[in-house]
Amino acid sequence: MGGQGCALDAPGSLRPGLIVLSKKSEMSNQAASVKSITFALLANFGIAVTKTIAAIITGSGAMLAESIHSFADCSNQGLLFFGLHASKKKPDKDHPLGYGKEIISGPLL
């Protein structure tokens, strides 16, 4: 099937083209998310510090506003980390499908 996965549609039948995700692939996606969020946090923090230094040196109010905006971007990555942590919770009575979409709600705040 050339690298494509198959999923069971009915007992004994396969539908080519569907890829069944295993727990291992979900974990690697989560690791990739942590890596991406970390890189974004470090980049935004570096930009924020650079803009703050530029604002101090030049006395520019606009540059100070930009530095504050960059620090706010860093807080967004913090909310993403919080949502990622919350999405790991196991299903319970109130949430039988789990908390997987919890990662989306943090940055919406």
Question: What does it look like?
Answer:
The protein is mainly alpha-helical and 109 residues long. It has one domain. It has 3 helices and 2 strands. It has helices at 23-58, 61-86, 102-108; strands at 6-10, 13-16. The model is unreliable at 5-9 (pLDDT under 50).
Helix content, binned percent = 55-70%
Spatial extent as radius of gyration: 21 Å
Termini separation comes to 44 Å
Strand content: 5-15%
Instruction: Write out the strand line-up for the largest beta sheet, numbering strands in chain order.
Output: 1-2
Number of strands: 2
Q: Mean pLDDT, rounded to whole units?
A: 74
Low-pLDDT stretches are 5-9
Total helix count?
3
SSE inventory with pairings:
Layout: E1 6-10, E2 13-16, H1 23-58, H2 61-86, H3 102-108
Helix pairs in contact: 1-2, 2-3
What are the salient characteristics of this protein?
109 residues, mainly alpha, two-stranded antiparallel sheet, 3 helices, 2 strands, 8% strand
